[in-house]
Amino acid sequence: MEPKKKKGEIIEEIMNRQLDSFAKKYGRDPGPEDPIFFDLEDQIPITYSQENLRERLIEVAMKSGIDPARVLLKLKIPTTEGKA
User: Fold this and answer.
1) 2-27 pLDDT, tens per residue?
2) Residue 83: beta bridge partners?
3) Measured distance CA(55)–CA(69) in Å, rounded
4) What SS3 class is residue 47?
5) Strand, helix or coil at 83?
6) Burial degree of 54 (CB within 10 A; 0-12, 13-18, 19+)
7) Largest alpha-carbon pair distance within the chain?
8) Measured between alpha carbons, how far is residue 37 from residues 3, 42, 83 in Å?
9) In the chain, where are the structural domains located?
């Protein structure tokens, strides 16, 4: 069993995944005006809709070995349609 990750480690993992995803998608590091969470389907970096952001957070949390419900609740994002 892996030791429990600290909040700072979890946030760092999520941010690093997002920065890597941005660089792979757009061929550059994000600038100060670029969104941290963005829609991978778009040709330019635009912010996700709330539903797309929710889905992406779940995906990233699962890849990081984190309970997605905890992340969503912490960020006050509904865990299911319309429920916080």
Assistant:
1) 678 888 888 899 899 999 999 999 99
2) 80
3) 11
4) strand
5) strand
6) buried
7) 41
8) 28, 12, 21
9) 7-74
User: 68-83, pLDDT tens digit by residue?
Assistant: 999 888 888 877 755 4
How far apart are alpha carbons 25 and 53 in whole angstroms?
A: 17
SS (H, E, C) 16-43: HHHHHHHHHHHCCCCCCCCCCCECCCCC
Chain centroid to Cα 79, Å, comes to: 14
d(CA 83, CA 66): 20
Joined together, the tokens standing for residue 75 give 């960020």
Residue carrying structure tokens 């952001």: 53
Q: Quick check: 36 and 14 in contact, CB under 8 A?
A: no
Output the pTM of the full model.
Answer: 0.57
